[in-house]
Design a protein that fits this description.
Shape: globular
Radius of gyration: 23 Å
Number of helices: 10
CATH superfamily of one domain: Alpha/Beta hydrolase fold, catalytic domain
Largest sheet: 6 strands, parallel
Helix content: 25-40%
Strand order of the largest sheet: 2-1-3-4-8-9
Low-confidence stretches: 4-27, 276-289
Strand content: 5-15%
CATH architecture of one domain: 3-Layer(aba) Sandwich
């Protein structure tokens, strides 16, 4: 009997300690990885200000290169990259990168949220050309990339191109006012000179099964974006039932409004970590256009 009593005392000490440790472990959920996908005429450095802020918050961040060679192949490349990441993922796309994440995330259970920043969000069978050709409401303007393409783009041949395909560069004289209309002239000029081209054949290619139909989405609308006009952004964001924030930003909102872009990504990450209400801190767009 004397031997039994000490064993009971030890059990009473150990069991509560084990329960506390188990609760602590279950309540501690690792931060999701953040994957940032750039769009056309850009590279991963366009996310530099957002990357810095996210890393300061303890997130693991990836900004892989987007090949800009075709919607299906670019999406397949990103899908393969995502397979190398373990644990939950917040997938973020800017501009054309929005179309890429829409396709690449489909069927990947690790992708827990999609965040679109001034981005295309195509439906199945829809092309970027169809979206950007959508007529604007009365009193609003269409894309600054519309009109006579010879006045907007430089067409450059490249080895292995199919007949009629070209690398497209935005003319450096057009880039600042169209693409970066809220940045200094000097910064806009640097971005214009270092742009990466996208192939012309991307624009009529149909999109596949959209991940946003099964994965929660967030959308940052740049209200002075001249590349993807705000009316088109709102149409796509509302169709995807995304949580929407509007900021006074150009097509490069993740650069000029890096804090707002980071905050929205963190809002999406909080839902994965079991954080606050997804509507917390968001200014939702009106439901009508």
């Amino acid at each position: 009997m004397k031997k039994v009593i000490p064993l009971v005392i030890i059990a009473l000490i150990i069991i509560p300690a084990y329960v506390v440790a188990a609760k602590s472990a279950s309540g501690s959920i690792a931060k999701p990885s953040i994957v940032l996908v750039h769009g056309a005429w850009a590279d991963g450095s366009s996310w530099s200000r957002v990357v810095h802020r996210l890393q300061d918050q303890g997130f693991t961040v990836y900004a892989p290169p987007n090949p800009l060679r075709g919607l299906a192949s670019d999406s397949a490349y990103l899908a393969s990259f995502l397979q190398s990441i373990t644990g939950p993922i917040i997938l973020v796309g800017h501009s054309y990168g929005g179309a890429v994440i829409t396709n690449a995330a489909t069927g990947n259970p690790n992708v827990k949220a999609l965040v679109f920043v001034d981005a295309f969000v195509p439906d199945q069978g829809e092309s970027l050309l169809q979206l950007v050709s959508m007529p604007p409401p009365s009193g609003q303007s269409g894309s600054c990339l519309g009109g006579d393409p010879t006045q907007v783009f430089n067409f450059v041949s490249f080895p292995g191109a199919t007949a009629g395909d070209f690398d497209l560069y935005i003319k450096q004289s057009v880039f600042p006012s169209c693409f970066a209309n809220d940045l200094s002239d000097g910064k806009a000029a640097v971005l214009a000179s270092s742009q990466r081209p996208i192939v012309l054949s991307v624009f009529p290619q149909p999109s596949g099964i959209p991940a946003w139909k099964t994965i929660p989405s967030w959308y940052l609308v740049g209200t002075i974006d001249r590349v993807i006009p705000p009316f088109l952004q709102l149409f796509m964001a509302q169709r995807a039932h995304a949580q929407i924030v509007q900021v006074r930003g150009s097509h490069l909102s993740m650069f000029s409004q890096a804090e707002a872009a980071t905050d929205l990504i963190e809002q999406a990450a909080q839902t994965v970590q079991g954080g606050s209400n997804t509507d917390s801190g968001l200014t939702l767009a009106p439901t009508s256009l």
